[in-house]
Structure formats: structure tokens, C-alpha cells
Amino acid sequence: xxxxxxxxxxxxxxxxxxxxxxxxxxxxxxxxxxxxxxxxxxxxxxxxxxxxxxxxxxxxxxxxxxxxxxxxxxxxxxxxxxxxxxxxxxxxxxxxxxxxxxxxxxxxxxxxxxxxxxxxxxxxxxxxxxxxxxxxxxxxxxxxxxxxxxxxxxxxxxxxxxxxxxxxxxxxxxx
Length: 175
What we know:
The protein has one domain. It has 6 helices and 6 strands, in the order αααβαααβββββ. β5 and β6 form a beta hairpin.
């Protein structure tokens, strides 16, 4: 499960890797940095799609009766300003600049991993998916644990029951 979370964090960072592949890293040859960044941009997202496929094939679903939900739009801005802009604006004119940017990237990956913000995915947002935090109704036997739901819907009725695909224990996909 920890590997899945790590790969989902990398999938969140795919726009940054694409921007860095386009922009370039002056101290590293094109033949090395370009394929590396493209791989980092697409491999974790391919894994996410593969995980969704496996969950659908195995009918790995979770029944939840929704008690409350909140939209996580504001976290997308935090995601952009906390990660993409500072790292994209970093200079790579010397090897020390590269090391400092790499350390900043490691710090951000750790923070996103530790705070469980691995569900921010630009590509899913681009295709019209929203990220909702939902809480099951404890009166109906649900736990008061919050789940993150990736869905195209913008709202749910209170006490409505859904059966989304389970990507991780707390990350669900409503197709």
C-alpha cells in the first residue's frame, strides 16, 4: 500500500515533470533528462489507470452511505502554488542548483506523501473529475473515517449510498 501511495504522489507531480522536460536541465544532457522526466510523468499515471482496471476487473468496491462531503477545489490551488511554481522557477545553471532543486522535490514528495495528498491529479481534473472528501454515516454502521472520492459528480444527497471502486483503503473512484 505504501508503494501505491508513493506512485500516486509521483502521478500528482506529472505536470511538473512535463514542464521540466520541456524547459530542460542545463547541467544534464537532453538524452538523459528528457526521457527520465517523461517516464516520471507518465509511468505513475499508467499505474493509476492499471490499478483502476484491476479494481474494476476484481469488482473491488466499497459501500459507503454518505453523511457529509466537501469539495477539495481549494487544495488544487495549494497544490499548484506549493509544488509546481517554486520547482518550475528553480534555476538549473549549476550542479548546486540541481542538488537544491532535487532536495526541494524530495521534501515536497515527502510532505505530499505524509499528508496523504496523493489524490491531486491534474489529468483527472482535466477530464472533468472532482475530488470530494466524504464521510460515511456512523448511524448506518459506517466509520467516521474520511474517504477521498474521485468523481464527475459535484454533490451527493445526504444518506445516499454509493459503491465506488477502491484504489486504496481511503481513495475511491466513482466511474
